Amino acid sequence: MGIVIDTNFFINVENNRAKMQELDSYTSYGEVYISAITAAELLLGVHLASDMAIRINRHAFVDNILRSIPSLAFDAKVARTYAEIYAYFFKPRCKATANVHDLQIAATALTYDFPILTNNIKDFKPIPGIKILALSE
Questions:
Q1: Which of 14, 32, 82, 125 is the most buried (most CB within 10 A)?
Q2: Which is nearest to 31 in space by CA: 123, 107, 109?
Q3: pLDDT tens, residue order, the chain (137 aa)
Q4: What is the dotted CATH code of the domain comprising 2-134?
Q5: Closest CA to 99 of 115, 75, 118, 72
Q6: CA distance 31 to 114
Q7: pTM score over 0.90
Q8: Do 111 and 77 form a contact (C-beta atoms < 8 A)?
Q9: How many of the other CB atoms lie within 10 Å of CB of 54?
């Protein structure tokens, strides 16, 4: 059992719109994980910081996350799931669009059969088979 935490949760924590302790409410789902894609998005945020003070603080924040929450690799098994759900959005009758990173995070959750904890419901909802746990803003 486990749960995949979406990137936006950590962005909200950094911006004081959420607290890490909120994850304690989800212990019934088992271990808390991030996807390798979330790790990459968080690290990208370090590199894109608008000034050195923000970069230093963000670097420490992200390092703490990466040390304390295990990440699930984007391996060949996850890649197969990703290809399947990405292809879904190319089907002629599919009216939805999807963000590539969100699809990769969703593929990770689907591969491990874990729900995803997010407040980005609208972007994950069209993905077939995904189990979403909604965070409140």
A1: 82
A2: 109
A3: 999 999 999 999 999 999 999 999 999 999 999 999 999 999 999 999 999 999 999 999 999 999 999 999 999 999 999 999 988 887 776 666 678 999 999 999 999 999 999 998 998 998 999 999 998 64
A4: 3.40.50.1010
A5: 118
A6: 10
A7: yes
A8: yes
A9: 14
What amino acid is encoded at 5 in this protein?
I
Strands, E assignment, 28-131: 31-35, 71-72, 116-118
- The Cα 23–Cα 18 span in angstroms is 10
Please count the residues of the chain.
137
CA distances from 94 to 88, 91, 118, 126, 128 (A): 7, 6, 23, 9, 11
Six token digits for residue 48: 């894109």
> How far is Cα 3 from Cα 31, in angstroms, rounded to an integer?
6
Secondary structure of residue 91 in the 3-state scheme: coil
Neighbours of 72 (CB within 10 A): 21
